[in-house]
Amino acid sequence: MSTMTVKDATGTTITIEKPLAPNRAAAALSRPVVLSNEDKLAIDALATQATAVEILAKIIAAPSTEAKQDAGNTSLSSIDSKMSTLAGYVDGLEALSSALNGYVDGLETLVTSSNTKLDTIHSDLGTTLAGLITTLNGYVDQLEGYTDGLETLVTSSNTKLDTIHTDLATTLGGFVDGLETLVTSSNTKLDTIHTDLGTTLTNLITTLNGYVDQLEGYTDGLEGALGISSGSAVITDANGTIQQYLRGLVTQWIAGTLVVGAGNNHIGQVGGITPITRPTITVQATPDYSDGDSIGPLITLSNFARVAAGSGIITRFAMRTKLSGGILVQTFLHIFDSNPSSTTFTDNGALTLNSADYSKILKTIAIASSDWVAPKGVSPWYTCEVIGRSGLVEYLEYSLASGRDLYFAWEADGTINFAATDDVAAVIAQIQD
Question: How many domains does one find in the chain?
Fold first, then answer.
């Protein structure tokens, strides 16, 4: 075999076999060429690239034998024949499309041009439709009138209307039977019935409108008597609406000032209520209280009476102290049936009653040091029953000139040394009128 000299990748001259002449026999006898390491690495790198892989994947392998090539040629011939057939179909469709375009052009010309027959048909159809719409509008107007009258009749509650409704139902039943026969033909009786029925319904509507006007008048009168919700309360003998009178009653009821007739009448409540009051009395631990000092401030028994200017009976008034042995000096309890507002009451300060408050004293009760009773059991309280069955006073009636509050003050008649601010308490019971 012939040889030839070539240079390898390093530039060194080497001897290799000459390539054979190209033909199938030579291809079968040829041997593979050995690649250098560098060339092999370059080809491997190209094979790993995504672009090369995608390109190779899309390449269709050529047939490896002549037989397969011939089969491929046969397939191509078959495809070519079918493509020719499809081309014929396309040519036919194009011819059909051209013909249809001609028809469309003709119709467009006919529609947009002036044509005697089409114009006549259009004019006659418009006239006919206009006449039908006018006739239908007339029927609609009549039906609306009948409907309005019937709706008014149906929604009213009235003896006369009920009678009319019954009679009208009977009459209409007869009319309907006759109308069913007459409707299909042209008859002067039908026209007469239509006229009479229209007159009758008009008269009925006029009568009903009169009833509606009367009801509106009655409603306006009632609204005026009842009054609006924003009307002010009337609590005196003055003109007002029912709503104002009711608001006045509720206002007085809530305030506890409602009085019906002469005297103190109980509304929603009975007499003989026996509430118990426990007022808070705070004293000073230091300094000591002296003769004439006020023991605590003026105490207000709020809402003591059941109603304003109310009355009742104090059945118990117990004073208590945690001082050992009780209060060891005499004291005075002053009870007022009106606020002694002209006098200044200062805890642990000298008490001087203003002359303007003299008349407000309901009762003054002296409490001696010997009136205090030792506690029983675990009770911490030394007690003096100032008012009660076994007390210094059996009971005390009161009748307030105004308001519902009672007042009392406690006066020292010697030195008192309290140990804590809560060393004093009181319990009061009563029967309210």
Answer: 3
Q: What is the DSSP string of 232-267?
A: PP--SS----HHHHHHHHHHHHHHT----SSS---S
Which of 58, 84, 104 represents a domain boundary (last residue)?
Answer: 58
**CA distance linking residue 420 with residue 372, whole number of Å:** 19
Q: Is residue 160 packed enough to be buried (19+ CB in 10 Å), middle (13-18) or exposed (0-12)? A: exposed
Strand ranges in 261-357 using DSSP code E only, listed in sequence order: 276-277, 299-301, 311-321, 331-336
Q: Are residues 324 and 426 both part of a single domain?
A: yes
CA separation for the pair 255, 319 (Å, rounded):
32
Q: Is residue 151 part of a domain?
A: yes
Residue 63: asked if its preceding bond is cis (omega within 30°), the reply is no
Tokens 């209060």 belong to: 327
Let me know whether 427 and 296 are in one domain.
yes
For the stretch 168-205, pLDDT in tens is 678 767 776 765 665 566 667 667 877 888 898 899 89
**Domain around 194:** 120-221
Contacts (Cβ under 8 Å, ≥6 apart) of 302: 404, 405
Nearest 5°: CA angle at 278, between 272 and 282?
155
CA–CA dist 336, 403 (Å, integer): 13
**pTM, full prediction:** 0.43
Per-residue pLDDT, averaged over 388-395, amounts to: 96
Whole-angstrom distance, CA of residue 348 vs CA of residue 294: 5
For residue range 6-30, list pLDDT tens digits in order.
777 788 888 877 766 666 666 556 5
Report the distance separating Cα 301 and Cα 277, nearest Å: 8
